[in-house]
Amino acid sequence: MAAVLLEGKTPAQRITAECAAAIAQVQQRYGVRPALCAIQVGERPESERYVAQQRKLCQAATIDYTLRQLPADSSEKMLQALIGELNARPDVNGIIVQMPLPAHLDNKRVTAFIDPAKDVEGVHSENLGKLILNRQSLAPCTACAVIELLTSTGMDLYGKEAVVVGHSEIVGKPVSLMLLNRYVTTSVCHIATSRRGLLADHIRRAEILVVAVGKPQVIAGDWIREGAVVIDVGINCVAGKLVGDVEFIPAQERAAFITPVPGGVGPLTVAMLLRNVVIATQAQLEPNA
Ligand code: NAP
């Protein structure tokens, strides 16, 4: 029997509605609207797309959205000064630096300038470190979306065998820690696993499979364990069409649940950004709550 599709739209609508209610409460209690400020250095078509998406999302959720643009040849010092100014402003609750930055700037050094309390993408080392301590607050949005989808299956996670393919700092590593924090037995595979020819062996054992690689069909459908939950984070453009990392049709025949691409993790990631803005705003306004 074909797997149930784990679509992101329905949970994204629920989370967006929860955020709208929380924002209304903040407005009523404090007379302010949450405010998000994005910084863009130089011009890139993909950044423009993200900015447009963020603006639309914030408008719909009654969050103030401001874009600060710096020229492509801006120095690290200029960026540090701008982030410092936004960190100090009580009327800015969240800060996003659009990545990737121009090649002369170091993404990680720049991220470190953001006040962890305003790091709504959950990428500051302090927020990532909290995942190790199982004290999650602001966490990477895509990793949160993966856990939300997994939870929506109703599966008892305790002791399950999970395989995460990809170990990036924004997806693979945080997802692995979030799974560990839920007592899931978690293996993390990466390029070396593939090069040793061991990827299929790991995947055949996975009751939960999370793939975040960025290569179409890197996971063959017949590797999927019968009844597995498959969360495909990958986004690839093949012949003008968006596809994930998993060979979808044969995988759907074997899995119990599978995310479509597009329409799975993506819409929920956007909702998680909203949730992080709400969490950050509430924590700043009610530090002792
Ligand atoms: P990334 O930083 O490029 O990481 C990719 C990971 O895959 C790396 O850990 C890499 O290992 C590993 N890898 C590469 N080739 C492999 C192979 N043949 N076998 C096993 N592992 C392999 O990418 P990312 O930022 O995590 O994103 C991954 C994908 O998710 C991309 O398609 C991206 O567009 C998508 N994405 C989607 C969303 C969403 O909202 N839906 C959000 C973020 C990202 P090494 O580092 O060891 O080479």
What is the fold's blueprint, element by element?
Layout: E1 4-5, H1 9-30, E2 35-41, H2 45-60, E3 64-70, H3 76-88, E4 94-97, H4 107-111, H5 125-132, H6 141-152, E5 161-165, H7 172-180, E6 185-189, H8 191-195, H9 199-204, E7 208-211, E8 229-232, E9 236-238, E10 241-243, H10 248-254, E11 257-258, H11 265-285
Parallel strand pairs: 1-11, 2-3, 2-4, 5-6, 5-7, 7-8, 8-11
Antiparallel strand pairs: 9-10
The protein binds NADP nicotinamide-adenine-dinucleotide phosphate (NAP).
The site of NADP nicotinamide-adenine-dinucleotide phosphate (NAP) has 26 residues, from helix 8 and helix 11.
Task: Compose a concise summary of this entry.
The protein has 289 residues and is α/β, with parallel strands linked by helices. 43% of the residues lie in helices and 16% in strands.
**CATH architecture label of the largest domain:** 3-Layer(aba) Sandwich
Number of helices: 11
- The secondary-structure class comes to alpha/beta
Number of domains: 2
Q: How do the strands line up in the largest sheet?
A: 1-11-8-7-5-6
Round the Cα radius of gyration to an integer and report it.
19 Å
* Low-confidence spans: none
Report the biggest beta sheet as strand number plus sense, adding barrel if it closes.
6 strands, parallel
- CATH class term of the largest domain: Alpha Beta
Helices and strands, in N-to-C order? EHEHEHEHHHEHEHHEEEEHEH
Strand fraction band? 15-25%
Overall morphology = globular
What name does the CATH topology of the largest domain carry? Rossmann fold
